[in-house]
Write a structure and sequence with these properties.
The chain is of the alpha/beta class and 389 residues long. It folds into three domains: 114 residues, Butyryl-Coa Dehydrogenase, subunit A, domain 1, CATH 1.10.540; 106 residues, Butyryl-CoA Dehydrogenase, subunit A, domain 2, CATH 2.40.110.10; 147 residues, Butyryl-CoA Dehydrogenase, subunit A, domain 3, CATH 1.20.140.10. The chain contains ten helices and seven strands. Strands 1, 2, 3, 4, 5, 6 and 7 form a seven-stranded mixed β-sheet that branches. A hairpin with a 4-residue loop joins strand 4 and strand 5. Helix 1 packs parallel to helix 3, helix 4 packs antiparallel against helix 5 and helix 4 packs antiparallel against helix 6. The protein is globular. Bound molecules: 3-thiaglutaryl-CoA and flavin-adenine dinucleotide.
Amino acid sequence: MAFAGVDFMNIEDLLSDEEKLVRDSVRSFVEDKVIPIIEDHYMKGTFPLELVKPMAELGYFGANLKGYGCAGLNSVAYGLIMQELERGDSGLRSFVSVQGALVMYPIHDFGSHEQKEKWLPRLRAGAAIGCFGLTEPDFGSNPAGMRTRARKDGSEYILNGTKAWITNGSIADVAVVWARCEDTCIRGFLVEKGTEGFKSKDYHNKHSLRASVTSELVFDNCPIPQSNLLPKAQGLKSALLCLNQARYGIAWGAIGSAMACYHTARRWALERKQFSDKPIASHQLVQNKLVHILTEITKAQLLAHRLGRLKDEGKVRPDQISMAKRNNVAMALEVARMARDILGANGILSEYPVFRHMANLESVYTYEGTHDIHTLILGQSITGIPAFE
Ligand code: TGC
Ligand code: FAD
């Protein structure tokens, strides 16, 4: 049975023709090119590099940015791309999120003219891959504590430190790296592959996001030319602005994972028979699970759609993005676990996508601000009282 989307509340009616066209085109790409190969990559623990060029040709990298050959799509169309890609696999959506929201966006918004001309066309075309280094081994939820340092030395900065858990790290041609400078201000640097003293090492044996490269980056007295400093990035706030872009995409992407799980569970429940000739879908307990799943997906869709429209009106707030990331990822993780349950023992097999989505979503729950960090962001927004320390 082909995937026809999940749309209980006629959200289709809220979309423009262009948005529907974009969604349908990504849906076909995922059906034809991603689903046939992704399970194999996942089991082997490899990222499908062969999809980079086709995704670039379809305009997925930096699709919501303007200029430099980018598609300049609105936020809802961009969100729908993330949704459909993550129906394939969270690792694929991660790749596109990092490339667009965490590498192209900071170069686009904080970069010099030369940096934009050099990197944006190549990143858009998939001729270069990027990564984003904020997290450190001892500073995940609290990046303000970072130990990575950039010391001015003539016309260069000397970079020292370690970044942990970096998506695309070892395959990146350029890393956007955040470091504290001598004046205590955190700034962003473009660190190019091959820079002296720059090494990367991949994390192996992951149980989650196996079709994605995750690496540690080490900077040992790396000379970074002044021209590779992002001139308009000032303070941690600039890095957090990048996170808003990525978190927005994740709020949509998680819906895609949940849709894949719902689709699989519903089909299974209608075919699987136990105790009688009737399918398990005829039992109230199973129906209750399907109803809960569909209701939660529908609420998440409405949240993401509203967020997208606010973003395009220039009115979206970071705490609103936090609510959508927090809710939609937790929703998708719960849906994946319930779908696995409905499939019984078969739910643990790689013939079905649910366990893969479930395992992926454990990472998505943690990265880009853990579930609880977004709770604290929202708690502060509601009460005015920060509860981080
Ligand atoms: P705090 O004092 O609260 O803020 C510093 C300045 O930044 C402003 N700000 C924001 N601005 C824009 N967007 C946001 N989301 C912002 N959050 C805060 C704030 O107003 C302040 O501005 P100003 O003008 O007063 O200087 O900073 P803090 O150090 O107390 O931290 C706050 C906290 C905990 C919310 C922040 O550190 C945080 O978000 N932590 C979570 C870390 C995180 O999400 N890391 C993600 C790493 S990247 C990643 O995971 C990629 S996964 C791959 C993929 O996406 O697929
Ligand atoms: P910690 O911050 O140590 O948190 C551990 C637990 O403590 C969590 O439950 C957390 O919610 C809780 N906790 C922490 N502080 C508080 C508090 N004040 N109050 C209550 N509870 C608290 N980072 C990048 O920079 N770039 C990337 O490309 C990137 N890709 C990633 C890819 C993967 C697969 C993964 C898993 C992570 C990636 N990350 C990346 C890192 C990610 O952003 C961090 O893992 C995340 O920010 C959490 O940091 P941590 O793992 O150090 O957990």
